[in-house]
Amino acid sequence: MTEKLFIFKIVLIGDGAVGKTSIRMQYMGYGFNTSHLMTLGADFSTIDKEIIPNEKWKFQIWDLAGQQMFEQVRARFYKGAQGALLVFDITRPSSFQNLPMWLNELYKFNGSGVVPVVVLANKSDLRDRKSVKFKQVQKYVTELNLRTQRYGVINYCLETSAKTGLNIDRAFEILGRSIRDKSNQK
Ligand code: G3D
Ligand code: MG
């Protein structure tokens, strides 16, 4: 039985210090393979996963290194992205407020418009300092889904912690499934 290969290009986006690189590193575990593309101002890793029998999923994960980048560089970072992990920090409401800005940038530059995202309410281990309720996040995603369903796109949200590892595997699995289901519709 031959394995079916899926290659997913995904981007990790969100404000600085919300935990994007930590999430990528946590997902990579040990056998990781990373290269630093300094000229692009982005880090890139690939990881192979076997989540569904007879399927091999190859994730190409792009993670913005710097905050201030020229638009042309950002455009190259996003180009071809089939989905995104849209990350904010539950202790920093401004990082939640900025999600629509990141989403617009993704849609604008990836080359195919509306693509699936999983919103990650990260640093969920910092319960005492929590200031964005998960209910607000669910509301945001429900409203987003009303706008994206006509494109066959369903978005999700999860509470994560790059520190404890909570829901990190799940985040990638859900995004992979969304991209896979979207491409199967064509
Ligand atoms: P970024 O890539 O989005 O800029 P980083 O964010 O992954 O560099 O993380 C920024 C800081 O937040 C780091 O702390 C990192 O350890 C911390 N962090 C990331 N994810 C979590 C999390 O889930 N829980 C907690 N408690 N901290 C997290 P430092 O102190 O190194 O700047
Ligand atoms: Mg980073």
TrEMBL record:
Membrane-spanning parts: none
Record bears the keyword Transport: no
Highest rank taxon of the organism: Archaea
Organism encoding this protein: Candidatus Heimdallarchaeum endolithica
Name of this chain's protein: GTP-binding protein
Pfam families: Ras
PANTHER family per UniProt: PTHR47978
Lineage of origin: Archaea, Promethearchaeati, Candidatus Heimdallarchaeota, Candidatus Heimdallarchaeia (ex Rinke et al. 2021) (nom. nud.), Candidatus Heimdallarchaeales
GO molecular function, a single term: GTPase activity
Keyword Metal-binding: no
Keywords: Nucleotide-binding
InterPro entries tied to this protein: P-loop_NTPase, Small_GTP-bd, Small_GTPase
